[in-house]
């Protein structure tokens, strides 16, 4: 088992999570304007950023599983993740719902029926295969898949580690990726959620998170290697070049190239967790704070893309300066919502503890 410090997040994963969050924001920003205003600008295959987050989630899941062993069940692990993610998730889901009621888009009865009809999405269960689509929010599927796939993987690696790692995991990657590739070479189309066994969204998350597990296992094999200062510089260069290759090439090339991008992402994530050369910079409180906001930004940017921009930003084209302003607005808004939700959760916990004591 690796030392705790080897797994601390004092590495460049902080920075790359911020970068890939922005890529998703820009991609969805462009989707709004390209569909509504027929804007010629495209962001190509930046949906590959979702694979990055799944891979990192799989890696960190293994960190948790190795630290706790069988002391923490998959159900308890998933419940803990649910409680951590749910407050901001619920706010990001219900606030646009309230705005649509207040602005007259939906009547009260219609809105309540919509909420009742999407009860799975309220509890992060929209991707379990009950044939309920479309969703109230088109970004919440990722959170649902991460919890479902995380539960499956965590159970397997804690209860059947040897069998899973040596047989099931490689077989799953080879067979299922081959199946999905023949269904559609474009990973962005793997979002079909109807049914249980061929639920493409869950399979996508399951496969990508298993790549993260594989990255962890490979990292475990090379952890004892002593890296010189030059070696760490080479690793840093390889990390930056790998991420840059994915970001730049996916801008214009996708489909058949998506699997190549997956390989480079896995390699880059490995280097990110291995290399803590500039640990002082990565430990910056500001960088850590922005990284902490990424989850809120991911959930909240959908409000700006789907509700605010189409109503208040009527133009037939966009420029880079507008994209920068959009990113800044969403981060500032998310900082406020993150602070507000955190305060509310603390207040509820304190109130609950007082009730129990009294």
Written account of the structure:
By secondary structure, the protein is mainly α. It contains 13 helices and no strands.
Alpha carbon gap, first and last residue:
44 Å
Order of helices and strands: HHHHHHHHHHHHH
Strand content: under 5%
What is the count of DSSP helices, taking H or I runs of 4+ residues?
Answer: 13
The overall pLDDT, averaged over residues, is 84
- Class inferred from helices and paired strands: mainly alpha
Largest sheet: none
What's the shape? Answer: globular
Rg over CA atoms: 21 Å
Into which percent range does the helicity of residues fall?
Answer: over 70%
Number of strands: 0
Poorly predicted regions are: 1-9
Show the helix and strand layout.
Blueprint: H1 13-37, H2 48-68, H3 74-102, H4 108-117, H5 119-122, H6 141-159, H7 161-183, H8 200-222, H9 229-249, H10 258-274, H11 279-282, H12 285-312, H13 320-357
Helix pairs in contact: 1-2, 1-12, 2-6, 2-8, 2-10, 3-6, 3-12, 6-7, 6-8, 7-8, 8-10, 9-10, 12-13
Summary keywords:
13 helices; 0% strand; globular; disordered N terminus
Structure summarized in a few sentences:
The chain has 358 residues and is mostly helical. It has helices at 13-37, 48-68, 74-102, 108-117, 119-122, 141-159, 161-183, 200-222, 229-249, 258-274, 279-282, 285-312, 320-357.
